[in-house]
Amino acid sequence: MKKSRTNLMVCAGSGCVGAKSLKVKNALQEELKKWKLEDEVTVVLSGCAGVCTRGPIITVYPEEIFYENIKIEDVSFLVEEHFLKGRPVEKFMYKEPVERLAIPRMSEIPFFKHQVLRVLRNKGLIDPDKIEEYIARDGYSAAAKALTEMTPEEIIKVVKDSGIRGRGGAGFPVGVKWEVCAKMDSGQKYMLCNGSAAIKDGDRALMESDPHEIIEGMIIGARAIGATKGYIYVRTDYTIAVERLQKAIDQATEAGLLGEDILGSGFNFDLQVFRGGGAFICGESTALIHSIEGKRGTPRLIPPRSAEAGLWGKPTILNNVETLANIPLVIINGADWFKSLGTDDSPGTKVFALTGSINNTGFVEVPLGIPIRQILTDIGGGVPGAKRGRKFKAVHIGGPTGGSLPESLLDMPLTFDDIEKAGAVMGSGGMVFMDDNSCMVAMAKFFLEFNADESCGKCVPCRVGTKIMRDMLIAITEGRGREQDINALQEISYDLIVGSMCGFGQMAPNPVLTTIKYFREEYDSHIRDKWCRTGMCRELATFYIDERICKGCGVCLRACPTKAIIGEKKKPHKIIQELCLHCKTCYDACKFRTIRVLPFSAREASETELAELAEAIAPVVAVKKTEKAEKMEEVE
Amino acid sequence: MAENIKILVVDDEPIVIRSAKRILGAEGYDVEGASGGREAIIMMEKKNYDLVLTDLKMPEVDGITLMRWIRKSRPETGIVVITGYPSQETIKEALELGIIDYVPKPFTPAVLLDVTHRALEWMKGKIPEEEIPKEEFPPSMISELDRVIKEYKNKPGSTIPVLQRAQEIVGYLPPIIQKRIARGLNVSTADVHSIVSFYSFFSMKPRGEHIVKVCLGTACYVKGIEAVVTKLKAELKIEMGGITDDKRFSMESVRCLGACGLAPVMVIDQDTHGTLEPKKVAQILDEYRPVSKETT
Questions:
Q1: The model scores a pTM over 0.90
Q2: ipTM of predicted complex
């Protein structure tokens, strides 16, 4: 790297590129040239910083000043102020959500402060398209150590001692799996990387921001098990990841880190990118292997395990992206270092993708074993709209085959086993936060629609079971639910768990089981009272404006798509039930929280009955009180 | 029924030719014999045969070599293998050369007759290669496709990469293209179709100039992608999976684009559009429309 006074890292992750970060980079360079600053300030593209909603993101080094949402038209002002006059620009900095104070330094922003970066240590710091930058940060030294100073047995021992568990799914110990494969007597073996799991923000970001880290992990793994060929399986729609990985492989091959006689060790390893066809089930190991073989990606019965008979019937190791990214660090720093974070059973760190009703979305790396609450409040910055009374309701962990956990489990440590015990899976590491506006029955329906759609159809319990469950859930959300449905859903879930061939079918009922377990009252309310209290299930809700508090501001009136709301300015408005589509638009639009979600039966109710119902769910005294408190808060 | 059907029996054992002539001749087939591959080729140069029954192991020019020649020079001729030593390797090779069937030696008259009848029936049902409409698929496109097929031919597991490249070249994968790929890679059309229909990336319908992929993943659902989809449908006047009348846009759904932090998300061509709101939709679509509004 060229020495210059300042380095300007422009994020080139998918999110920022989508927000035109590449154009911003060009604009920056032109602007710097205009002021003849191009030798002093170097503009570099970097990998994803993890806060994709705030893109394009620019970080200024060495001061570590973090700018967000930089638009092309902001560039000239930014260059003039910061780089010419030396005054960092507050208005482009991150502002903490409560007091709106600007926080200039990246390391002080809570979102970053509470993270521990291991696999993501290079994010936003190196240009993923340049192997020299990875090498400059000790890249490939682990591969060199593994190939020239260690025997395959020694590599496996370190990995086994570290206790690292697979980051992709069930958390099987990596070293144990490698050992089985290494012992297989076979001419050809394969080393595979699973970059296909859907809902894997973190994996995608890793492939985009630090592709060499994954390649290095694969070289070490291949050496340990004795594989000479490898594939990185990536979904075709991850365009940037595919390009970066291909480029990284080409560079590593040119540098003699892939190919024949790597680093003079006599070890050969040939690595290719395989673009998958986009099927959720291909995250399952045997299905992924079928897909590389050029077949339909359907799973098969296990045993035999892939480590014994995998790709083309040869012993094969399949590890997930994040697992492989950990391997170089384990080799360089040793097993004890790895275990210094996390818990005894779940050592190390884990990348989670935060999304949904949470202030800071993006992906984060934290030590395993920390409570979910810390992620929600310290890193995630809490639930948006908390001031207006929005409350946390559930966090869904593990994607469509994961589970939704309630507030009572927020202090549960995040470990493989605790999550599983609670009914979710670590799996993808996706965390979707939901506030009290989300209907849990509707969420379960959404996941089962997904799972029924993505079931590959090979085995009956999964193919038929997911569809029956989906139809039952649709019936419940549309007001056709029966009392016995809850039991039936649980029974069918059990059939899927014991009868399905692969992990997908066995875990497909998780969203239903966890929502029944933790949010049973919502099912009861849907079935018995025909009432979705969140108003998400439109067949089961009646919207009513509480005339006692309505200010008559007219926002809902303008927002309503069917003009079902009438009322004069500054006088309480009214919803004409016969015209209402129950779309909830007015509810979201109202700033004074005057709209009540009443049961389906209220559509026929008289004005006085409606007022009584509204009073029953939200007594007006209490409402006025909170409103007052809120105003006080705002004044303060 | 058997009139005018010419069959050539190739075997280095004269008894096989004699018995074949006796059995098939009685049914009215016109049967001739050749004692080896070389003689068979010379005979076939002079005359067309409908069906060749050939041994595999023969001195000088063997069955496999003969079949290769037939595939190249007389592709319309059907082949049935008669063999006493069916080893896995040779059978696999023979199957790759597109034989119709094989008869193990020794055989009974009934078996030989049955196999011959079936082979001829099969050939009758064989559909000639479909003509690829030139207006829709220009010859340059097809030759590019054939080049890709050739590049991957005989490589294991090449069907998916070929289909991906084919979709890039043609834009979508209609049955006629699937058939051409199957033939080129020497796999069954059913196999190719089973892959095309399985993976959501492959499309059997024509796609627009710009492809709008809407994420229906969990995060996008929670963040309200449904309202965005409703707006997109209204703006483009198409349903999910449809294509606009001017062929400018087609809309598809995908299961998580892996950009959950940006939810709700859609991707148009290669551009990611995050934190969508229904009211932003029209403006985003305009970026992909020609500048002058009158034309649209």
A1: no
A2: 0.79
